[in-house]
Amino acid sequence: MIVFLILVYNSCNFENMQNTQILINSVKEIVAAGDEQKLEECVKALKQIDSIELTAIKIMHVTSRILAEIEELKKTSEEVKQSIEQSRTKMEESKKRLQEVRIIRRNKQEYSQLVNVIEENPSRVETNRRIHELQDELVQLQERQKQLEQKLSERRAQLQSFNAVLMVFQKFITEDEQPESEERDSNSPDSSEENGATPRRSSAVPE
Fold first, then answer.
1. What pLDDT does residue 116 have?
2. What number of CA atoms fall less than 13 Å from residue 4's CA on the CB side?
3. Which member of 8, 38, 136, 180 lies 3.0 to 4.6 Å from 30 by CB, making a disulfide possible if both were Cys?
4. Distance between terminal CA atoms of the chain?
């Protein structure tokens, strides 16, 4: 549209210049001839020239304004391009910073996890100390086990001896009770009646 107006302006200027030149030449010829009728035509021609010049001036102003607007639009377009380029650059920088922040955050998480693992697991010195303590405790438990096994063996031997003594004692009691049982049987009333004799009190003292 702007290019079209410029072309129209240029064509109008060219035509106006040609028309103006023709009118000027005609006025010169009429003045030289001294014809009044033609002088009136000259006046009309001059008015026409003024109208053409006024139109040309208006077109020139419009064209100047259009050209100024074109320059302003070019300037604005350049500023917009620069702004877009700056925004694009800032976006790229923001993406890079965001990526760096993500990497830093991931490193912090990994570091925190590593710290937790280190805190949960004892140090080498602490581990060695604990191993020595467990070894000492194991030695003590083994010694304690030996002592308990020795005491258990002694208790078993004592129990076997006690069982042997108990068996001998039971044997003695059994042998001691047998004569008394036989004597009671012989002194019972039933046995006296069967033998036809009166029972007698035994004066024997059991051993």
1. 82
2. 1
3. 38
4. 156
> Which segment of 62-71, 106-115, 184-193 scores lowest on mean pLDDT?
184-193
Question: Within this chain, do residues 15 and 95 fall inside the same structural domain, yes or no?
Answer: yes
Residue 3 pLDDT exceeds 70: no
Question: Which residue type does 31 have?
Answer: V
35 Rama sector, left if φ>0, alpha if ψ -120 to 50, beta otherwise: beta
Amino acid in the structure at residue 9: Y
Q: Can you tell me the distance from the alpha carbon of 34 to that of 31, in angstroms, rounded to the nearest whole number? A: 5
Compute the average pLDDT of residues 126-135: 84
Are residues 138 and 113 part of one domain? no
**pTM of structure:** 0.34
Say if residue 44 is in the same domain as residue 131: no
CB 52 within 8 A of CB 18: no
* Residue 15 · residue 40 · CB < 8 Å: no
Q: Which domain holds residue 147?
A: 122-157
The rounded distance, in Å, linking the Cα atoms of 149 and 92 is 80
Same domain, 111 and 126: no
**One domain, residues 48 and 127:** no
